[in-house]
Hints:
The protein has helices at residues 11-19, 24-37, 43-58, 65-76, 80-86, 95-109, 131-184. By secondary structure, it is mainly α. It is elongated, with a radius of gyration of 28 Å.
Amino acid sequence: MLFQRRNQPNWAERVRIALWPRHSFTRSAKYFAKRVLRLTASPHAVAIGFAAGTFASFTPFVGFHFMLAFFVAFLIGGNMLASALGTAVGNPLTFPFIWASTYRLGHVLLGHDPATAGHHPLKLDLFHQSIDAIWPIFKPMLVGSLPLGFIAGAIAYFIVYGMVRTYQATRREKLSARREATRAEPKDAHPAAIKPGPLEKTS
Length: 203
């Protein structure tokens, strides 16, 4: 197949790329930011859509973040593509912190002591256990994800709104200046009538 890698990466390299991109996090973050800024929608629609994706990434519904982000963005009038990009807030680097914080906060909101909740350890194979074993872990994570997701979404909204608004205003100014420069350029004059030279005979 054309444009296919000659040496396919093994599972270890795929995991490494997922945790540490080939072109550094700075370059990946710049590319991601450009994707968000270049969306053709109002700053509010982009920002509220991104906030919906951020909120969804805090919930324990792993594997359904895209669907949840689309649903929330639809309800609040956000941009769908921006909501999908917002789910990138939840990634292999941030998930451990998100899960731990939502789990502990959920216990606090439910009136439990997180220190005494050790009989329900947070395991990686949650979805391979029975419902009875999952619920004591899932419930506090869900409860804790709501306020944390809302706070993170609100912060993301104001950050993305300011960035998109500035980018779109700068882009409009550049396009306006380019149009003005094009109008100011002198138009090509029509070629003057060719007069016969001294050696040419006139009829």
